[in-house]
């Protein structure tokens, strides 16, 4: 990771209220290097430059620290190259994380990075999200999705996996407010509702971002 990208990472994290330690920064630099190296062989991400990796993968993932706490169990559905699961785990070290993707090569990459970074209580699993309800019903405090699917599809798949007081979190870009509004009827049919809608600008770049937080409706 070049010096400009390193500064972007530090600046972006600071704007989010996160002060990264030297060990955490070292983990991000290693992660970026492995992502660049592996992306030459397999399709991990369309984002190639160090600067874009720092902002559009790392800082973007860290925006979830606005709503996810450093405790409990988190599931990341459709995590691809490990986003937001691995960046979150780097800064929230006590969080138990399961990262799921249907593409085996991407899961193998995540396991490789987790070993390099000595991430404890981190599990990368090759499975389709639809299959998890058989083995992980009601187990997660947080379930997150970053550009995985539309909100109703995400909620229908993951609500059975959520604890009664847990939260579903959909990360959305421009148009997130409209998508959240359009999803309210479908969420109601599923027994869920929007608990919080955070609208903000991605640090440094100023790109629009939305975090849609959902919860189960009590019976």
Average pLDDT number: 94
Separate helix tally: 8
Low-confidence stretches: none
From the helix content, strand content and strand pairing, which structural class follows?
A: alpha/beta
Give the tally of β-strands.
7
The biggest beta sheet reads: 7 strands, mixed
Shape: globular
Q: Can you describe this structure?
A:
Strand 6 and strand 7 (208-216) form a beta hairpin. The longest helix has 18 residues, at 22-39. The chain contains eight helices and seven strands; from the N terminus they run αααβαβαβαβαβαββ. It has a seven-stranded mixed β-sheet with strand order 3-2-1-4-5-7-6, with helices on both faces. The chain is α/β, with parallel strands linked by helices and 219 residues long. The chain is 42% helix and 24% strand.
Structure characteristics:
219 residues, alpha/beta, seven-stranded mixed sheet, 7 strands, 42% helix, globular
What is the secondary structure topology, with strand pairs?
Layout lengths: L2 H13 L6 H18 L10 H13 L10 E5 L7 H7 L4 E6 L2 H13 L5 E5 L6 H4 L3 E7 L4 H8 L3 E11 L3 H15 L1 E10 L6 E9 L3
Helix pairs in contact: 1-3, 3-4, 7-8
């Amino acid at each position: 990771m070049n010096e400009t990208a390193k500064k972007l990472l530090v600046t972006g994290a600071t704007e989010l209220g996160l002060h990264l330690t030297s060990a955490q920064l070292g983990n991000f630099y290693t992660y970026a290097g492995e992502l660049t190296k592996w992306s030459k062989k397999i399709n991990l991400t369309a984002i190639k430059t160090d600067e874009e990796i720092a902002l559009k993968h790392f800082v973007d993932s860290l925006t979830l620290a606005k709503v996810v706490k450093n405790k409990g169990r988190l599931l990341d559905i459709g995590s691809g190259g490990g986003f937001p699961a691995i960046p979150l785990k780097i800064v929230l070290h006590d969080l138990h994380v399961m990262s799921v993707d249907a593409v085996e090569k991407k899961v193998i990459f995540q396991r490789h990075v987790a070993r390099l970074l000595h991430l404890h209580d981190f599990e990368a699993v090759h499975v389709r999200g639809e299959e998890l309800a058989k083995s992980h019903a009601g187990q997660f405090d947080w379930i997150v999705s970053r550009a995985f699917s539309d909100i109703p599809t995400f909620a229908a798949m993951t609500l059975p996996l959520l604890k009664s007081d847990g939260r579903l979190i959909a990360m959305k870009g421009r148009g997130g407010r409209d998508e959240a509004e359009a999803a309210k009827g479908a969420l109601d049919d599923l027994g869920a509702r929007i608990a919080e809608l955070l609208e903000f600008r991605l640090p440094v770049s100023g790109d629009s971002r939305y975090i849609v937080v959902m919860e189960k409706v009590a019976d």
